[in-house]
Amino acid sequence: MRKNRLLVALTAAVVTLTTWAVPGSTAQASSPSTTARTKAPPAITWGRCTDATLRQVRAQCGYVTVPMDYSNPSGEKIQLAVSRVRHTTLRSQGVMLVNPGGPGGSGLIYSVLGPLMPQRSGAGYDWIGFDPRGVGASRPSLSCRPNYVHPNRPPYVPANQSDVQVWLERSKFYAQGCEKYGALLDHMKTIDSVRDMEQIRLALGVDKINYYGYSYGTYLGQVYATLFPSHVRRMVFDSNVDPTKIWYESGADQTLAFERVYNLFFQWVARHHQTYHLGRTGAVVKRQYLHQRQVLRGHPGNGVLGPSEWDDSFQIAGYLQAAWPLVAQGFTAWVHQKNPRPLMRIWRLMQTPGDDNTIAVFNAVTCTDAPVPGVSTQLADSRRLFRAAPISTWSSTWFSAPCLYWPARPGKPVTVNGHGTSALLLGQTLDGATPFEGSLEVRSRFPNSRLVAIRGGTTHGSSPDLSGPCATDRLVAYLKTGALPPRLPGRRADVSCAAPPPPQPMGATSARGSTRAMRLTLGYSIALR
Fold first, then answer.
1. Distance between CA 526 and CA 510 in Å, rounded?
2. Active site residue: 126, 253, 369, 431, which one?
3. I want to staple 59 with a disulfide (CB 3.0 to 4.6 A). Which of 18, 54, 185, 226 is the partner?
4. What local confidence, expressed as pLDDT, does residue 25 receive?
5. What is the DSSP letter of 171?
6. Nearest C-alpha neighbor of 386 from the set 264, 293, 281
7. How far is CA 89 from each of CA 84, 189, 476, rounded to the nearest angstrom?
8. Other C-beta atoms lying within 10 Å of the C-beta of residue 39
9. What angle do CA 185, 527, 154 make, to 5 degrees?
10. Is residue 165 classed exposed, middle or buried when 0-12, 13-18 and 19+ CB atoms within 10 A define those classes?
11. Other Cβ atoms closer than 10 A to 312
12. Could you give phi then psi for residue 482, rounded to 5 degrees?
C-alpha cells in the first residue's frame, strides 16, 4: 500500500466519460471493559454541504464527534466530516458507508457513488461518505509540512550515499513537522478509524451498516467485520489489501507488481509505435523511460520537470489502464518536442502542492499500525528491489521513510476474521497497487465471501464499471438482493471474468482535453473539481 498515496486522482471518468469490541474479538488495542464506557455520539445534525458537487446531488453534510483516544472516551474529542445522499426507492436497503482508500483518501464526496452504480443497483441505499480522522474536512486535518511536495525535488533514485542522506534528512524533517499533533498521532491507527465507523453507525441510528471499500478501504472493512460482525449487512471489497502484510511487507509486493504493470504499459506503447514513435518493443520503450529520467536529473524541463516529477507523472499508468494514452502523450511530447507541459499537467492532477494531508495521514496510519524495520534494513531491501523494479522502488521508499522517525508508537494489527459476515470481493489479477494474492487471502478469511476476478486486468478499482459486464452483473445482483455466485473449492476465484480490452491511442496531441475529463476517483482520494 505504499505507492498509492501520491495518487489523489485515479479516475473512472476517463473510461465512462472512480458498542465496541465484540466479546472474543482479536483486537489487541482495547478491551470490552474499556470500550463499554464509550457513549454513543449525538445524532448527526444534517445541513448544507459546502462542496458544489455534493450540493448538486442534494447531499447533506454534518459532523460526528468521537473520542480521540478510545481508552479515555471522556477525554479530548475530534470530529469526523460525513455526507449523505438518500435512497430514491420506495424501500430502503439501509445505509452504505464508503471509503476510497489511501490511507489518507478523502471519502466525503463518495456519497455521490450511489447514482453511478449500474442498473440503479445503488438506488436503495443511503450512501454515507466520510473523511476518516485526520483527513480532509474532519477536525483536525493533518498537515505536517504543507510544501513538502513541490516541483523539481531531489531525485528519487540515489546515485550515491550523499543522495541517500538528503532523503533521510528530508524524511526526518517531515516527521518532525508532525510532532505538533502530539497525542493524536498515537491514535491514528486503522483500529481507531474502525471504531470511528462504529460511532458513525450509532450516530446514524441504525443497527447494521452496508459497506463499500476500495483498496485500503477494504482493510477498514475487514477489521470492522472482525470487531463488529453483528452490525454488518453487506460488504463490497474492491481491490483487496492482504491483512497478513501490514504494511512493510506489502510494500515490497506492491513495488514488484507495479513494475509488472509498467512493463505492460511499455509493451502497449510499443504496439502503437506509429502513434508514439518511442520504440517497437517494450524493452526499448522502457530504456527510453530510464534514459529520459537520467537526462532530467541534470536538466529539468522548464526547471520543474525533474526525475522525481517524471516518475510521479507515470504513476497513474500503474493504477488506471484507461490513462495509458494520456501518459503516452506526455511521454512522446517530452521525448520528441522537449515539451514538459503535458506531463506536468498530469503531475499537478495527482499532487496537491501546498497540501500534504494525504501524505501526513498515510504516514500517520502506516507508521503506527505495525512496526517497521530500521534504516539499514530498509535501504538494503530497496537496493535489492531496485534491481528488479527500477521504476517503482525508490519513490515508494522515500514516501514511507518518515516512518523511520515517526513521533508515535507503533501497535499490532488486528487478526482479521470474517467468519461472521459475507462479502463480495472484486480484484484484477494484475493490479499493481493491491496484488491479487491479497484478494485470495481475504477470501480465505471470509468463508461466506465470493471473489470475482478480472483476469488480466491491471486497473486498481474495478467498480462500478471498470471491469466489464461479467463482474458488473455480479455486483448488481449483490447490491440489489444480496445474491452471491456459488463458492468454489480451493484457493481461487469463484468467478473469472475477462478484462476489458486495452485502450486505443489518442494521438500525440495535447492531453489537456483528456485531463479535463478526469472527475470521480475510484480507489483512493477525492474528485477533481
1. 25
2. 431
3. 54
4. 31
5. H
6. 293
7. 15, 37, 15
8. 10
9. 60
10. exposed
11. 22
12. 80, 5
pLDDT at residue 507, rounded to an integer: 60
130, 114, 134: which is closest to 58 by C-alpha?
A: 114
3-state SS track over 463-511:
CCCCCCHHHHHHHHHHHHHCCCCCCCCCCCCCEEEECCCCCCCCCCCCC
The amino acid sitting at 257 is: A
Please report the DSSP string for 326-362 in residue order: HHHHHHHHHHHH---HHHHHHHHHH--TT--HHHHHH
pLDDT digits (tens, 9 = 90+) for 322-369: 999 999 999 999 999 999 999 999 999 888 778 999 999 999 999 999
369 is catalytic: no
Of the candidates 366, 377, 343, 482, the residue with the CA atom closest to the CA atom of residue 424: 482
The question of whether 187 is a catalytic residue gets the answer: no
* 71 annotated active-site: no
| Residue tagged active-site, from 313, 460, 465, 494 | 460
In the chain, which stretches have pLDDT less than 50? 2-36, 508-529
Distance CA(345)–CA(514), nearest Å, equals 11
Cβ neighbours around 486 below 10 Å, total:
7
Cell of 82: 460525513
Instruction: Give the count of alpha carbons within 13 A of 454, CB side only.
Output: 31
| pLDDT (tens digit per residue) in 362-406 | 999 999 999 999 999 999 999 999 999 999 999 999 999 999 999
Residue 362, all three cell numbers:
498515510
According to the model, what pLDDT value does residue 37 have? Answer: 63
The answer to whether 55 and 49 are in contact (CB under 8 A) is yes
Contact 108, 136 (CB under 8 A): yes
Q: Quote the CA–CA distance of 59 and 61 in Å, as a whole number.
A: 7
Predicted TM-score (pTM) of this structure? 0.92
The single residue of 215, 239, 313, 449 carrying the catalytic annotation is 215
> What is the rounded distance in angstroms from the CA atom of residue 128 to the CA atom of residue 114?
10
Owner of C-alpha cell 458537487 = 53
